[in-house]
Structure formats: structure tokens, C-alpha cells
């Protein structure tokens, strides 16, 4: 099974690309999993409420107010470190369990949709990494329009992320959405994932069957991918 990493900066079009990929292959979305692990009853939820207090709960007094929690940790590196320690390991484990589930179900490919793909080191597990990108002016315009932000707040959100040039260095495929409409972004993404297409990155059916029925080949392929990415990073 081909593991496809998908990442990109805020307001660059990653969500649109993820939906297009999801029409053909399963997608494991880190943002969805991140919401799941902090639901009431989850271990991370209990740790977060105990550490940050009742002020970060919503009007119902049960669910987390993610916006309030975000404001608490945005300007406090130590609080952000503590929160990440409570959530990130659980998010990674749950995501990898879902990837394994799709593999066991015979999927030809699976997408890891992760905003912090490189920061978390998850790109090392991926056979192909797609980076969604657009120019800085377009990103600012989209972010301010989408989230109704003033320029200062928009700039601070962008500045808090990995520099675009660092993200692009780790890409196998770059989806530049600067001059693309939403539908244009979908079409460009589909060209890489539609089975049998001239630009398709999906592994052939025979290769998937070989890897499933001869596990050592699948293991060697996975190790080769891991070592190749580690070498590129070095």
C-alpha cells in the first residue's frame, strides 16, 4: 500500500486537495483524529481539563472550547509543549492504527493528511509527499477572507507555521494553487490519483497483490522508503 503524505500551509488549499484524494483512496485526517482524542471520556481530555482548568470548557460544561484552549497556548510556549505532550502521541497512535486497518482491508493507497507532517517526522513513513502551496499574497488574502481576520492576526498565524521553502524542500509533488480555482485544485489533484491515468501515482494492482502475499517484499519496500526519506532529510 502506498502511503501518501499531504501537507501545506494554512489557507493554501490542502482541505480541497484532501477531499479530492478521498474520492479515490481512504484519508486519515490528523485534524479529525485530534478532535477525537480530546472528546469527553478520552484520557487526553481528562489530562487537559486537570491542567488547564474549567475555563477551557464550552458552554455545555463538558466539551472543550478549542478556540479558548488555542488562545491559552498560542502565546505560551510552555503551555503549548504540555498540550502537545498530552495529545500528539495519542494522535499518532490512532492515525497509524487506522492506516494499518486500511492496509489490512487491501487499500492500494492511503493518505495521511497532516498539517505538521514534517514537524512530526511522519513524512519518513510516506512513499510520496504532496505539498500544497500558494504565493504569500494569495495565502494572506484567502486567510483573511475565510477567517475574517485583521492583517496582524493573519500574519501571526502564518508566521507560527513552518517556512514554505522548508516545506517545499521535502515535497515529491507540489500542488501550486496560486492561480487555481477550487475546481481547478480538485482536477489537478485527481490527475495524480485516478487509477490508470497518465500521471497517476497509485501502485499497480499486481504490485499491491505481490506485497500482500509476499510480506518480505512489502517490508523491504517500506524500509527502503524509510531509509530514502531519512537520507534526503540528512
Distance between the termini: 25 Å
CATH topology of the largest domain, what is it called? Rossmann fold
Widest β-sheet, arrangement of strands: 2-3-1-4-5
- Regarding CATH, which class of the largest domain? Alpha Beta
Number of helices: 11
Instruction: Tell me the Rg in angstroms.
Output: 19 Å
Number of separate structural domains: 2
Order of H and E elements: EHEHHHHEEHHHEHHH
Strand content: 5-15%
**The named CATH superfamily of the largest domain:** P-loop containing nucleotide triphosphate hydrolases
Quick recap:
The chain is an alpha/beta fold. It folds into 2 domains: 1-26 and 109-234, Rossmann fold; 34-106, no CATH class.
What does this 3D model show about the protein?
This protein has helices at 14-22, 30-36, 43-52, 66-74, 77-104, 136-147, 151-159, 164-169, 182-193, 205-213, 215-233; strands at 2-8, 27-29, 109-113, 128-133, 173-176. It has 234 residues and is α/β, with parallel strands linked by helices. The protein has two domains: 1-26 and 109-234, 3-Layer(aba) Sandwich (Rossmann fold); 34-106, no CATH class. The mean pLDDT is 88. InterPro entries: Depp_CoAkinase, P-loop_NTPase. Keywords: ATP-binding, Membrane, Nucleotide-binding, Transmembrane, Transmembrane helix. The chain crosses the membrane at residues 206-227. One of its GO terms (molecular function) is dephospho-CoA kinase activity.
Amino acid at each position: 500500500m502506498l502511503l501518501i503524505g499531504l501537507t501545506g500551509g494554512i489557507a493554501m488549499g490542502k482541505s480541497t486537495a484532501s477531499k479530492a484524494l478521498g474520492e479515490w483512496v481512504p484519508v486519515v485526517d490528523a485534524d479529525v483524529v485530534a478532535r477525537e482524542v480530546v472528546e469527553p471520556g478520552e484520557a487526553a481530555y481528562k489530562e487537559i481539563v486537570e491542567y488547564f482548568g474549567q475555563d477551557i470548557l464550552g458552554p455545555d460544561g463538558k466539551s472543550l472550547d478549542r478556540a479558548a484552549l488555542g488562545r491559552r497556548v498560542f502565546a505560551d510556549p510552555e503551555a503549548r509543549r504540555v498540550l502537545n505532550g498530552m495529545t500528539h502521541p495519542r494522535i499518532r497512535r490512532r492515525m497509524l492504527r487506522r492506516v494499518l486497518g486500511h492496509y489490512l482491508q487491501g487499500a492500494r493507497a492511503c493518505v495521511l493528511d497532516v498539517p505538521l507532517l514534517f514537524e512530526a517526522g511522519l513524512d519518513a513513513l510516506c512513499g510520496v509527499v504532496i505539498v500544497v502551496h500558494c504565493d504569500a499574497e494569495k495565502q494572506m488574502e484567502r486567510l483573511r477572507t475565510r477567517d475574517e481576520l485583521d492583517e496582524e492576526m493573519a500574519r501571526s498565524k502564518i508566521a507560527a507555521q513552518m517556512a514554505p521553502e522548508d516545506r517545499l524542500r521535502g515535497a515529491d509533488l507540489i500542488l501550486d494553487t496560486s492561480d487555481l480555482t477550487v475546481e481547478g485544485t480538485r482536477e489537478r489533484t485527481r490527475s495524480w490519483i485516478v487509477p490508470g491515468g497518465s500521471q497517476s501515482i497509485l501502485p499497480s494492482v499486481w504490485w499491491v497483490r505481490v506485497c500482500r502475499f509476499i510480506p518480505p517484499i512489502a517490508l523491504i519496500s517500506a524500509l527502503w522508503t524509510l531509509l530514502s526519506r531519512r537520507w534526503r532529510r540528512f
